[in-house]
Amino acid sequence: MQTLGELRQHAGSQTRSVKQEVRDNLVRKLQSGERLFPGIIGYDETVIPQLVNAILSRHNFILLGLRGQAKSRILRALTDLLDEQIPVVPGCEIHDDPLNPICGACRARVAAEGDRMPIAWLPREARFVEKLATPDVTIADMVGDIDPIKAAQAGLNLADELTMHYGLLPRANRGIFAINELPDLAGKIQVGLFNILQEGDVQIKGYPIRLRLDLMLVFTANPEDYTARGKIITPLKDRIGSEIRTHYPVSRPNAVAITAQEAWTDRTGLKVEIPQFVREVVEEVAFQARSDRKIDKRSGVSQRLPITTLELVTSNAERRALASREKIVAPRVGDLYAALPSITGKFELEYEGELRGAEQVARDLIRASVGAVFSQSFDGVDTKKVVEWFDLGGSLPLSDTTSAEDVISLTRGVQGLRELAEHAGVAPGAAAPVVAAAIDFVLEGLCAQKKISRSDERGYMAGGEPAARRPVRREETMDEEIRMPGGKKKYYN
Fold first, then answer.
1. Beta strands at 215-221 and 61-64: parallel, antiparallel or unpaired
2. pTM given for the model
3. Span 150-167, mean pLDDT?
4. Of 200, 325, 366, 384, which sits 20 to 30 A from 493 (CA to CA)?
5. Helices 276-291 and 252-262 meet at what angle, rounded to 10?
């Protein structure tokens, strides 16, 4: 269809609002059994049902959750519920409906050209407008303003509708308008959203020209922002139809699936094989961090932590493979220590954590994560033979740069170690880098259980964890007394 007349013959005079359009397409997907929101993992029983209910109710809604909980990704996925394309008046800044125009210029054009007026088609991707709320956003940015230059050039009165410069809200007409981090929006700007949420119209610069926009408004917010940087004013919260809480993955398999989907681990020229136990240890770091009392739970620990950590772990393995001329990149558990830069920046520390230091807290998290995964994988498995080998004076000078062939060669005489590596999931005939990764997992697991020890200089040896890297126990913190501000005493080792 190329003209308004053809459109009228095909569609009659019936038009749908954006919310009705999204609802209709959602109903069709539900009836056909089509998967909703592909790529969103772990929300099938929690967030997605609430989201579906909000859409079926034609609500504007807000996603409330800590950082790294896929809030923005969910909003962008809403475009899949829009029609593939819709007819618009060509050249109109607010994508006016040819069958029901709301701006004066489009009404005048329809009246003048009638059924001969050409129409254009707007794809669904162009109907999603996203704005990150910042304190410097003005009401003119959101709604619009008077353009005196346009008025002077056209010889129009400033009160004429044709002198308006449209803001983001009018330009999102007949689409979805998303505001990220809503509490960061200044209170007076939030007030400017009242009319569009309740009555569906906006007023520009105080002139009696109202545009009845067709919009679906969606928001995101972090609960911590309510007090840290700003807040959502109560009248605005009252006008938002649904408040939907997001959350971090509740199970390790879901977390592994998310990271596998998001992390960049394909490397040019080399085959990458990431053992399952490495993926699980990486995810367990995030789980341990979210429950650690030294880390601020109000700030949260983003799912970006395991994503970027797995990428650095893979890169460290790639560096080792390139130096050793290996064809397969097989990350090891020990590579997590090379990924400390991706861990330390992903959490905020409490006072106790500040005393210990971000890097040491991260090392403790890695050690605890290895221990948790190892204990689960080797529950009931006898590891005495390997431990006895070290107790009898054995040592292994291994590091994260040791090639796979050297790891296998140096550990060949450790009785029972290869059997434990096979128990970790190494298939018979597996490539040397994969076998080396399993051996490394066993050794790191025994270290985490304090059955053997490891140092960066000497490798693996007998005994518990070296004193220099053992977490300081409360009874050991009385060695040195220091004075804190205010005259308080603090004992620190």
1. parallel
2. 0.84
3. 67
4. 366
5. 110
